[in-house]
Amino acid sequence: MNKVRTIEIVDQFIDNLPEEVQEITVELRKIILDSSPYLKEEFKWSMPNYTYNGLVCYIQPAKTHVNLGFHRGIELKNKEWGHFLQGTGKLMRHIQINSLQDIQKDIFSSLVKSAVALNHD
């Protein structure tokens, strides 16, 4: 992961998470940033968000799990990995990760790349 692309407020946020949630968050952050050189890390709505020509995805830690969310997730729902995405809102969808073993790097990376492509216009 290119350290230049991370921001200090997100580093501090992650440092204050419970250990298991912190490990999941760090791995998701790495997958997101490694998936696209276009993504910019920001801290919005009390969580890490990743943008490129608008909102792309976010990491939302909770007490016992972490959500990898997609701001335009409804548009990804129709792709082959749509069954991974949860949620009932108008646009956003997420994947709930309960442990490091739940992380499917290739699938998550493909989802991030597809989410970036939605904003490529």
From TrEMBL:
Pfam families: DUF1801. Gene3D superfamilies: 3.90.1150.200. InterPro entries: YdhG-like. Residues 22-116 form the YdhG-like domain. It comes from the Bacteria. This is DUF1801 domain-containing protein. It comes from Ureibacillus endophyticus.
